[in-house]
Amino acid sequence: MNPIKKVLVIKPSALGDVIQTIPAVRAIKSFIPESEISWVVSDKFRKIVGMVDVVNEIYDFKRDKWGNILFLPVTLIEMIALIIKIRMKRFDICFDFQGLFRSGLITWLSGAKIKAGFADAREFASLCYTQKCRIRRDSVNSVERYMGLVSEVAGKDGKQDIIYRLNVPHPTLKLGEVVWFKPGTKGPKVCFMPGSQWPSKRWDVENYRKLVFFLRDKVDARMIITGTADEEEIGNRIAYGCEKAVNLCGKTDMLSLAGILSLSDLVITNDNGAMHLAAALGKKMICFYGPSSPERTGPVGKGIFIFRSKLPCAPCFKRKCPKLKCMTDIPVSLVASKALEMLNMENRGSK
Q1: Does the pTM of the predicted model rise above 0.85?
Q2: In this structure, are 129 and 208 located in the same domain?
Q3: Residue 349: inside a domain, yes or no?
Q4: pLDDT tens profile 162-181
Q5: Average model confidence (pLDDT) for the chain?
Q6: What single string gives the DSSP state of each residue in 299-347?
Q7: pLDDT: is 56 or 68 the higher one?
Q8: Worst-scoring range by mean pLDDT, 116-120, 169-173, 299-303?
Q9: CATH number where 28 lies
Q10: Cα dist. 9→55, 105, 224 in Å?
């Protein structure tokens, strides 16, 4: 791969998938130190990619706008403009980590000499590649799969180190300090992320609420609840009546969320995209898994504990379930005990 210099990465979405691609992008830079790396990513996640110092250029993929048929004429013009801009760069290689029709089409039209992707890419995207990696999506964690694609194309053997290294801007960290000051205590900082796009991935709101009051009474914790605007009511229910908990659902962008997570002592979360941001920042985490598989899409890093169901039906990969026994089987008492242990406060008495 010595002649290769200009590298295009295609991974527009979703949040967790974009973050899980970062170690592979760093591996590209490790294998080709002189490379110039450009990344096609959803404009919603531009700020996340902007924290990856090996990325030289970002191309916005306007996923929400381009997916709306009402904007079709404008979409065609903007997509053609994007393709022209990419082709003018004369990339040596393009990695399609997304593996869907649109990403495959961009790969095919990129003009790159080498077009690399997965053999099992969906929506016929694999037809657009000149080099296909046969690591199946159900065989390894997504992080390892993406890194495997890079290693195979680069002709490198052996396991590579998984490195995220996000450079959170200093002003963002200062903002995080201000936010954490709001609960008005010097106790440990615990961030809760109780949302998820799949209803079946959500640990019960009342369980989160009980945990909030337990940590307030036991260790005087200061707590922040984060999530999307659609999850604001969930945050309100969890924080109601607890003066040490602040609901910020719908009030953070990617950078401010990174600042809050960077300064947290513990993150307690469902399986969602922000969970991977916390992992990339090296945070201690407690995660809940029921219908999904931590082996395939779980967070990668140290200090991560996963509560998961042992039911024979799990993981079922279903968005909805009438019983949700895989999630209700995770008791608050065990989670509370693990939280104290991870905060190194298991022997501390009540307030």
Answers
A1: yes
A2: no
A3: no
A4: 999 999 998 888 888 888 88
A5: 93
A6: --SSSEEEEE---TT-S---S--SS-HHHHTS-HHHHHHHHHHHTT-TT
A7: 56
A8: 169-173
A9: 3.40.50.2000
A10: 10, 13, 34
Instruction: Decide which of 345 and 80 is more confident.
Output: 80
- One domain, residues 196 and 110: no
Same domain, 196 and 105: no
Dihedral sign for Cα 80, 81, 87, 88, please: positive
For 261-278, the pLDDT digits (tens) are 999 999 999 999 999 999
Pairing type for strands 114-118 and 285-289 reads unpaired
pLDDT(56) > 50: yes
The domain tally of the chain equals: 2
326, 271: one domain: yes
Region of residue 250 (left: phi > 0; alpha: psi -120 to 50; beta: else): left
**CA torsion angle 289 291 294 298 (round to 10):** -80
C-alpha distances in Å from residue 34, one per residue of 49, 54, 65, 188, 304: 19, 11, 35, 43, 34
pLDDT for the residue 50: 97
Shared domain check, 139 and 187: no
Looking at 138-288, list the stretches that DSSP marks H as alpha helix, in order from N- to C-terminal side. Answer: 142-154, 170-181, 205-219, 232-239, 254-262, 273-280
Domain extent at residue 24: 6-154
Domain stops at, among 128, 154, 180: 154
| Phi-psi region at 300: left, alpha or beta (left = phi > 0; alpha = psi -120 to 50) | beta
In this structure, are 98 and 229 located in the same domain?
Answer: no
Question: What number is the average pLDDT over the span 119-127?
Answer: 97
Query: What are the C-alpha distances in Å from 2 to residues 7, 27, 97, 148?
Result: 12, 15, 22, 19
Please indicate, yes or no, if residue 164 is contained in any of the structural domains.
no
Please provide the size of the chain in residues: 351
Q: Are residues 238 and 115 located together in one domain of the fold?
A: no
Element (H, E) at 189: strand 189-193
